[in-house]
User: What shape does this take?
Amino acid sequence: MDKKNIVAAWGRAQSFIGKYSSEKLQTATDYILETTLPGQHETSFGSVSFCGYSITKTPVQDNFEISVKSNTGKAIARKADADMNAKILAYYIATGEIRTEMIAK
Assistant: This one.
């Protein structure tokens, strides 16, 4: 990610978590976004949450590298859904384009 687009990209990362993650943002710095661990509480829909995120922004020469990882905690059966959500998030961070109907809930 180049410097001129990094502020918008980092904003998209935070926005996605606020809109689509059942986990609350636990850490938010200029270089780290991390949610609480999944599976520790019920969501507003009465189901146990299954996907948390860890997002890092690393300066690399004159650009930045953004890494997105999903965390399923004890919800191992939902790993494929969590990995897909992480890919959707990474694509959204990079492009600003999102297909909300593909997000597993």
In short: The chain has one domain: 3-40+48-95. The first strand starts at residue 25 and ends at 28. Residues 3-40+48-95 form a domain with the TATA-Binding Protein fold (CATH 3.30.310).
